[in-house]
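User
Here is a favour to ask of a fellow structure person. I am asking you to supply a protein in sequence and structure-token form. Please set it down just below, with no commentary around it:

Assistant
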Amino acid sequence: MQNDSWLMEGDCLEKMKEILDNSVDSLVCDPPAGISFMGKDWDDDKGGRDAWISWLSTIMRECLRILKPGGHGLVWAIPRTSHWTGKALEDAGFEIRDCITHLFGTGFPKSLDISKALDKEAGAEREVVGTYDPRSQYDNCQRTESDKGQYFEGTINKKVNINITIPATEAAKQWSGFGTSLKPASEFWWLIRKPLSEKTVAKNVVKHGTGGINIDECRISLEEGDKKGEEGELKGNYSSNGFFGNSINDVKNTSQGRFPANLVLSHNDDCLDEKCTEECAVKMLDEQSGILKSGTLSPKNNVKANSGWSGGSQANRVKNTFVANSGSASRFFYCAKASKSDKGKNNNHPTIKATKLMEYLIKLITPPNGIVIDPFMGSGSTGVAAIRLEFGFIGIEKEENYFQIAQERIGEAILEKEDIFRSHL
């Protein structure tokens, strides 16, 4: 059992200088986005687009140094500044391999109500016609900047009544219902790789243990979301258009689960096994897709592996029968579900990531017995996930309060794994 962890408090650029070249297997991190989220200094834009890209690329260049040749990374970004993050990664020397889109339903709209802003500029007082609690009605509300501060700063578990008002001026009436932002429901994870040192991936894997991603360990289970086929037994899945992966490798191995996709979904924290909340991304996708049914694929109507755009050039034919099966669209993707205790005690970090999601991402790109580094550790979700999967972990965090939270959470994860280990002796 590997529970090695090395936690460092301070600036990641300085702390990573203590780490040897080519010594870490994977990088999984959630860097700042450069949007001054909630007014936090650590998320400022460093003076603008070019300055921010230069700042992040300098840090990522150090990550490149300590990663083994062929080592992969998954680096978080938001849609608004993901192009900044992508350019910084390329400037640092990484190869962009893909981009995983993560869909969720827990984002809160942070839109400026233009109608209210116009009345405020005119010095007009709006008539109050009622109140609402944004915890249950945030899908339809537009909060002002003052509303946002009130809601996010320590009031999330308290009763919050915000006034419902009607426009006072003609301009405000004309622009009633207009805002400035969409509700966030997606984020990106850039899949990157340090260039290989060998001529082929196979040779690189043999020499360094890095260069590939762990497909089979991250396959999507066929047991969840599927209904039995016409022959009474689910033996696999096949999609004729290639969108969900119809390469020969996918078809031959679907008894192990579906090929991992560059899309992942997250249940809401309040979803139950038997029922999802209305804002759950999994529920919304399934409601829009309805029940889908695949056709039976049998030897008599097999197709060659190169028949689809993702099929490659292999001439092998499918030899097994793949029975028709049905279910909703979410069955094709990994769906993370957080537990009630996921965040830990007294965790006030504003951008906490679900541990189940982090476990999936780490497992995808980290070789067996590998070491994961997170230079923007925050409250330690990557570290907790790494320890639970029995990977080594290096975490660096500059903010003292977040570092203490991370220490506590990762320490608890280590003790939990040790208890499990002892129980099996």
Observations:
- Confidence is low (pLDDT under 50) at residues 137-157, 224-254, 303-320.
